[in-house]
Structures are given as structure tokens and as C-alpha cells.
Design brief:
It is built from 9 helices and 12 strands. With 273 residues, the chain is an alpha/beta fold.
């Protein structure tokens, strides 16, 4: 009998993750905030639960959502960009007692490479995090909080910039009058590989560990986005004449040694620049 999977936060990434487990015959519990949106998860073969977690309380069907779940994915973002006053650390603190009271034994938390801040050169999970943004600072604090817990095993996956389907950062860049750092390497991951890597690591990689989820291809920003704009038939992008001094390349030797085969190593491009 396959273990029951929980995906707390069935948004853009979490829904795809939940669907992938359903396709492989797992029983999957998924959460969304409103009852209407939670009920709509049934259309994807997911057992949907309405769950709301704030800084001060938990409401909805969290206990029912967690019932029988042994592997739990936390795939909801901090949301600080939209709500600068949001306390993501307090939200996770509210969640933890409920996990401890459940049968959950494995927790996977999707963090972000934003925790590395302005670090340059080759960046691995062993690199010291230097978050500069409020979101990065809170994510790093949540990582530490989760790692300090007894009662379940933890994996933290720091994902690079996400793209796939209708979501692509070139759409936002196309709105800018000028794009800085044209020679900076990109550190992105396609949605299908974010999902594939999360599952692969949970099945095959050591727990109590941090991993970077970034595609192994790091073309220059200008080269990649000019090709993406061309393939998506967007207006020509305007890049600064100053090359900039950003040379950050986020990678993970552990992922490489574990042998995960990226499904979209060229990040959705038909032709490479």
C-alpha cells in the first residue's frame, strides 16, 4: 500500500506536485484556503481540504488534512512580497504543533535560493546564506526552525526561479525600459523539474539535509531571455550596455551525484541561444 501524501498549499507548484502523485496511484491530500477552491481539487483526483493558517490561529480542516499522511510537502510561499507585514515564521510556528500531533514522519519544505542574497561565484548548499530581503530572512529562519524539530525528518529544497506553462519571467522583463546585468548567469528551474526533483530527493536523498533545485544550465541573462522573447513572440528586450558584475551560479553537487535527470534542462526553449 502506497503512503498517503500531503501537499499543504496546492497553488501553481503544489497542484502540479499533487497531480503527479495522483497519476502514480497515491492517495493525495491537498489544501487550499477557501472551501470552494479546496473542493475543486476533487476534479484532479485530490482529496481537498480547506485550511487557513495565520500568525495567530489555524482554522479549517487541518487535522483532517493531516490524517493518515506520512510525507508532507509544504509548498506555500511566504507571501511577503504581496503583504510586507506578513509573519511567515509565526505562521509555520502555528503549524508545527499540528504536525507533531499527526502521523507525519517526513516533511519537505520548498524554500528559495533568495536566502543566499548577494553571494557571488559558485553557490552550493554549503555556502553561507546572506539574505537581504525580508522574504529571504524569514525563509532562512523557517528553515532553521524546521531543522531543529524532533519527531519528523526534514528536507529543505531551495528552488531557483520558477517557470513553466504560462509562467515565465521574460513576460515581466519585457515590461522594463532597461534590463540590468545582461551577462549575469541565470539560475532557474522548470516546473516539471521542480516537481520531479522534489519527488526524487524525497525518495532517494538523505533527510535532515538542504538541497538546491536549479537547472544545470546557466546561460547569460541576455542570451536566454532574448531567445525566450523570440520564441514567445514578445517585443525585443532592451538590455543595459553595462555588463554588470553578477556571476552567481547556484548548483548542487549532491543532486548531480544522485543522478537526477532533468526533463527540461534547457528550461523550455525550443532552440538554445
Amino acid at each position: 500500500m502506497k503512503e498517503r501524501i500531503g501537499v499543504l498549499g496546492c497553488g501553481w507548484l503544489g497542484l502540479g506536485l499533487a497531480q503527479s502523485y495522483v497519476a502514480d496511484g497515491f492517495v493525495v491530500h491537498g489544501s487550499r484556503q477557501s472551501k470552494k477552491n479546496a473542493d475543486s481539487l476533487q476534479d484532479f483526483g485530490i482529496h481537498g481540504f480547506s485550511v487557513q493558517i495565520s500568525e495567530n490561529y489555524v482554522s479549517g480542516n487541518l487535522s483532517e488534512f493531516l490524517h493518515g499522511v506520512r510525507r508532507l510537502f509544504l509548498t506555500f510561499p511566504p507571501g511577503i512580497r504581496k503583504n510586507p507585514n506578513r509573519d511567515f515564521v509565526a505562521i509555520i510556528h502555528q503549524l508545527l504543533p499540528h504536525i507533531h500531533r499527526s502521523k507525519v514522519k517526513e516533511v519537505v519544505f520548498t524554500s528559495s535560493t533568495v536566502v543566499y542574497g548577494p553571494r557571488q561565484g559558485l553557490v552550493t548548499p554549503n555556502s553561507v546564506a546572506q539574505p537581504q530581503t525580508e522574504s529571504g530572512k524569514q525563509l532562512l529562519e523557517v528553515e532553521s526552525m524546521l531543522q531543529s524539530q524532533d519527531g519528523f525528518y526534514i528536507q529543505i529544497v531551495r528552488l531557483g526561479g520558477l517557470l513553466g506553462g504560462d509562467r515565465h519571467p521574460v513576460k515581466q522583463l519585457a515590461k522594463l525600459p532597461l534590463i540590468d546585468n545582461p551577462q549575469a548567469p541565470i539560475n532557474l528551474i522548470h516546473k516539471v523539474d521542480a516537481i520531479g526533483l522534489l519527488r526524487y530527493l524525497a525518495d532517494r536523498a538523505p533527510w535532515q539535509s538542504i538541497y538546491n533545485g536549479v537547472a544545470p544550465w546557466h546561460p547569460k541573462k541576455q542570451d536566454f531571455y532574448e531567445q525566450a522573447a523570440k520564441e514567445m513572440q514578445l517585443p525585443s528586450l532592451k538590455f543595459s550596455q553595462e555588463p554588470g558584475n553578477t556571476n552567481k551560479v547556484v548548483t548542487d553537487p549532491q543532486v548531480q551525484s544522485l543522478g537526477y535527470a532533468f526533463l527540461e534542462p534547457k528550461l523550455g526553449l525550443v532552440q538554445t541561444p
